[in-house]
Amino acid sequence: FNFNPKSKALKDVEKIDLNTDSNEFFIQISEVLRKYFQNNFYIISFEMTSTELKDFFNNKDLNYLLDEIDQVKFAKKNPNNREKENILKLLKKVIRKLL
Prior knowledge:
The protein is an all-alpha fold. The protein contains five helices and no strands. The mean pLDDT is 92.
């Protein structure tokens, strides 16, 4: 049990390496996000689709982040390091903002 899921998630974000290949990078992003949802909101986020998460939270930034994850996962998008850096910033913003 994690007593401070937000702090743990933000520390996990810091461990993500921008130089990791795109597929692995976004797997790590997704895992941090879903663990945070599970520990903070007590939802079974690993079994939820992106659409279900979007509907549950109804948050513009989260929707964009989930769309980016899905584009790499399903459309084989290959973002550059600048785009990855922006995704990490957005991930931190989502973690800090969702109540």
